[in-house]
Amino acid sequence: MIRLLRFMRPFRALVALVLTLTFVQTTASLYLPTLTSNIVDSGVVKGNVPYIIQIGALMLGITLLGAVAAGFSSLFGSRATAGFGQRLRSAIFSHVQQFTLQGFDQIGTSSLIVRTTNDVMQVQQLVNMMLSMMVMAPLTAIGGIVLALYTDAQLAVIAFCAIPVLGVAIFLLMRSGMALFSTMQVKVDRLNLVLRENLTGVRVIRAFDRVPFEVDRFDQGNRSLTDTSVSVFRLMALMMPTVMLVMNLAVVAVVWFGGVEINAGTLQIGQLMAEIQYVMQIMFAVMMVSMMAFMIPRGQASAKRINEVLDIAPDITDPIAPNILPEAGGRLEFSHVTFAYPGAEQPALSDISFVASPGQTVAIVGGTGAGKSTLLNLIPRFYDVTSGTITLDGVDVRTITQADLRAKLGYVPAKAVLFSGSVLDNLRYGDLTADRPGVQQAVQTAQADEFVTEMEGGLDAELTQGGANLSGGQRQRLSIARALVRRAALYLFDDCFSALDYRTDAALRQALRERVQGATVLIVAQRVSTVMDADQILVIDDGRLVGAGTHRQLMVSSAVYREIVNSQMLPEEIA
Asked: What local confidence, expressed as pLDDT, does residue 551 receive?
C-alpha cells in the first residue's frame, strides 16, 4: 500500500491543506467541552448571563470554524484522492500496454479489468479515509486523554480501561476479516470471468442450448461471492455494536463515579459534562480507528493485487541506444531462429532460416499447430526469439525501438479486431493522417467498397463494439483495408482470407499485388489457392521449415506440401 502512495505526489499541496484543515477542525472540537464547562460552572450556576452570552458566541464561532474546516477538508481530500485514483488507473493501463502476450496470459484479462477498476476504487477509498482520519483520530484521542486527565484524573482512568477492551475486540475482528477480503477479490475476478465468457460466447451458448448450464455456473460464482460478502458484513456489523456498548458503558461509569464526586464536593457539574464529552471523543477516535481497521485489510488486499500487475517487468523492452532503420527497404531475414513459449517442453519453432525481399510475396503454409502464426508474431516482437536473429533491412529487430519497428509494418491478425466508432476511424487507426481518397482506395483494394457504400453514412457509418454489426468476411476485409491504409514496407497477413469466398479471395489477391508493389508481403494461409502464385512458399511442419520454393518446385520436392495440396484440390485443379 505504501508503494502506491507515490501516485499522491502531485497532490502534496492539497494533502497538506487537508491535514491542516483537519487539525483546525479537531482542535475546535476539543476546545468546545472546556467552554461548556465554563458556561455551566461560571454562568448558569452563578447566574452570570453576560458571561453565558459571551462564551456562547465564542462557542458558536468555533463551531462555524470547525464546520467550514471540515467542509473544505472533505472537498480538497476528495479532489486529491480522485486524482490519485486517476493516476493509478492510468499507470496500470500504461504498464499493461507494455506487456507481452505472456503477461496477459499470466494475469488474465478478466482479472486485469477488476484490478484496474474495482481494486483501484478500494485503494482510493482507503486513501480518502486515511486523509480524513489519520490526523483526526490520533489528535482526538491524545487531546481527549490529556484534557480528561486535566479535568479529573480519577474519571479519566475509566477511558484508559475501555481502550484496551476495544483494542482487543477490533484486533480479533480484523484478523478474521483480512483473509475474507482477499478471498472476496478473487471471487470478484471469477464472477467477472464467467460474465465475460457468457457475453462473448453467447452465440455458442445458445447454439448448443447451454443457457441453463451457464446460468447455473454464474449463480454458483454469484452465491460464492455473496456468501463471502455476507461473512465480511457480519464482522462489520459486530464492530459498531461492540464499540457503542463499550462507549456507553464508559459514559455510564463516568456519570456514576462523577455523581459520587459531585456529592462529595470535589467535582463540579460543568466538569462532569466536560469529562463525559472527552470520554466520548476518546471513544469516537477509537471508533474511527476501528473503521480504518476494516478498510485497511480490503485496501491492502487490493493494493497487493495492483502491485502484482505493476511488478510484472515487460519481457520485451526498447534498447538504450537503438539503431535506426533506413527509410526505404523491407528486406526480412530469419537466421537460424528458434523460439519456445515459456514453460514449454519443446520449441514452437526450430532453426528457421529464410529471406523475404522487397517486391516478393512469401507464403507460409502448414498443418494446424505447425507454428505459422508464431513465426509471424516474432516479426513485430510480440515475442522475442529464443535463439537466432530476425533482421529487417540488415538491422536486428531487437536493436530497434518497438515503435520504429512497428511503424514499418502493416499487420492483419487472424481474428479480425474492430473498435466501436466509425468505419473511417477504424481504417485510420494505423495512420491518422490518411485522407479520405487514400482510405477509399484501400477499401476498394480490400474488396470492401461493395458493402461499405451500402451502409448508412458510408465511411462515416458507425460500428458496434468489435464490429458485431458486420459479418466475419466483412470484418476481415476492413482489417485488411486498415493495414493497407498505412503505406508499409512489410505487410503481414495472418490467415486473414479464411472467411472470404473464392471469388472475393481471388479479386482481393489480384488488387493486393498492384497495391503493395515494392513492399515485402508475408501471408499465412490454410487455403492453397491463396498462396499458389506466391514468389516463395515456406512449408512449416511441427515447428520446422521442411520446404521452400514455388508451387511447382514444392509439388516435386516436398511431400508435406503435396499432401496439403491433395487434401484441398481435385487432380484436374492441380494439373
From this structure: 86
Q: Are 473 and 446 in contact (CB under 8 A)?
A: no
Cβ proximity of 465 and 426 under 8 Å? no
Q: What angle do CA 287, 289, 294 make, to 5 degrees?
A: 100
Nearest in space to 239 (alpha carbons), one of 179, 299, 176, 180? 176
SS3 316: coil
Q: Is 512 left (phi over 0), alpha (psi -120 to 50) or beta?
A: alpha
pLDDT tens, residue by residue, 233-269: 777 777 778 777 887 888 888 888 888 887 877 777 7
Specify the pairing of strand 361-366 against strand 536-541.
Answer: parallel
Of 34, 32, 28, whose CA–CA distance to 270 is shortest?
34
Read off φ and ψ for residue 412, nearest 5 degrees. -125, 110
* Coil, helix or strand at residue 410: strand
Q: pLDDT class for 387, splitting at 50, 70, 90?
A: very high
* Secondary element (H or E) of residue 21: helix 12-38
Give the HSE-up count for residue 37: Cα atoms under 13 Å, Cβ half-sphere: 20
Q: Residue 478: which residues within 8 A CB-CB, separation 6 or more?
A: 416, 418, 423, 426, 427, 443, 446, 448, 452, 467, 470
Q: What residue ranges in 3-142 does DSSP mark as E strands?
A: none
Nearest to 391 by CA among 410, 378, 382: 378
C-alpha distances out from residue 440 to 191, 436, 460, 517, Å = 43, 6, 12, 18
Is the Cβ–Cβ distance between 326 and 401 less than 8 Å? no
SS3 367: coil
Which pLDDT score is estimated for 44? Answer: 55
- Grid coordinates belonging to 517: 508493389
- Number of Cβ within 10 Å of residue 457's Cβ equals 11
pLDDT digits (tens, 9 = 90+) for 36-95: 776 666 655 556 667 677 877 888 888 898 889 888 888 888 888 899 989 999 998 988
**How far apart are the C-alpha atoms of 330 and 391, rounded to whole Å?**
10
CA distances from 457 to 36, 433, 471, 474, 480 (A): 74, 21, 18, 16, 21
Q: Tell me the helices (H) and strands (E) count for the chain, helix number first.
A: 21, 12
What whole-number distance in Å separates Cα of residue 479 and Cα of residue 469?
15
At residue 448, the 3 state secondary structure works out as: coil
d(C-alpha 74, C-alpha 62), whole Å: 18
pTM: 0.72
Report pLDDT for 502.
78
Domains and CATH numbers, the chain: 2-310 (1.20.1560.10), 332-574 (3.40.50.300)
* Nearest-10 crossing angle of helices 12-38, 136-151: 20
Report the alpha-carbon distance of residue 458 to residue 57 in Å, rounded: 73
